[in-house]
Amino acid sequence: MTLSNNSGLRGIGARIARFLTGAGLPLFLASAALVYEILIFGVLFAPDNWGTWTSFANNFKLWCFGYDPQTGGLAWSEVVVMQLEPLFVLGLSVIVSRRQVMGLSTFAKWRPHLATMASGVTLSSIAMIGLYLFATSESTDEIEFPFPGKRIRTELVPPSFQLTDQMGNSFDIEEHRGDVVIVTGVYALCSSTCPLILAELKSLLDELSPEERERAQIVAITLNPENETPEDMVNYISGYGFEYPELKYLNGDPGHVRKTLKKLQISRSEYPEYGIIDHSNLFLLIDAEGRIAYRLTLDERHQSWLRGALKELATEATVLASRESGNEGSPADTLVLK
Questions:
Q1: Termini Cα distance of the chain
Q2: What is the CA radius of gyration of the chain?
Q3: 0.70 exceeded by the pTM?
Q4: Percent of the chain at pLDDT above 90?
Q5: Residue 216 in 3-state DSSP?
Q6: How confident is the model over 212-227, as pLDDT tens digits?
Q7: Beta strand extents in 114-215 (DSSP E only)
Q8: Taking the mean position of all CA atoms in its chain, how far away is CA 36?
Q9: CB hemisphere CA count around 26 (13 angstroms)
Q10: Biggest CA-to-CA distance, the chain
Q11: Strand runs (DSSP E) across the chain, as ranges?
């Protein structure tokens, strides 16, 4: 019995050695890599109307590829790295077993390895299906994903713009250098998402400390510049509990307003026959140094991220203001504060 067991173990060991040093491992890895690459391409080019798969793909791109839902932008360097990683491992195995791989010149020589290739496809498919099922299961809806912070932070320079607020005062974004500025777009006749946007902004302000609130400025640009009067704007904003100047509702020359919205990538589409304007539900968070740090939306997950981002930037602005006030005699340039 002992000899038989030893012989069996030696046989298993010999098969494993042949698999690792022969053509088996490269073919197994090639099969698994094929499934992996199909998944990546399926995520990258997922249509917008494929339900759960689209949601899975967007979340995958958000966490792995720095995806921006509003612009569709990706960190393509991260995409390339993620695609090349399995191919790099496959290439190393091919180099180690190049003689055996080069010897697979006929189907007869491939036939003994078909089971190995099928195993690679099967195991990798099971892994990918498991990932998909976990990511789309109802239980994950209860998981609060932490605010990614620096991972999704940008340093985009916003376009300069000058408009007029609801009280008739001029507004210049450059004059708020040193503050955290949240920019969004709304219009008074909106009955769908604009009330949600304003309620979210009011909730955000109420959660800030007095010091953080002092450094925060909310800016809402009208999406309906031709049809909103200053009186309409005052009544609309006050109805949500905002006091001037904590929220400045901006309007101006309609052509300039539309150009400003376009530069800020706050999209809008008018449907005059229905009296509605379809628009993005976007929050642009501009840091104390005047850069667009975060682009977030009304997405349920982004609601917690919006709070984390605002607190982070408000803290930064408070620290910068303290430093500037403590170095008034320094020759260094100072920030323009409210």
A1: 88
A2: 28
A3: no
A4: 38
A5: strand
A6: 888 899 999 999 999 9
A7: 162-164, 170-172, 180-186
A8: 22
A9: 19
A10: 97
A11: 162-164, 170-172, 180-186, 216-222, 247-250, 268-271, 276-279, 282-286, 292-297
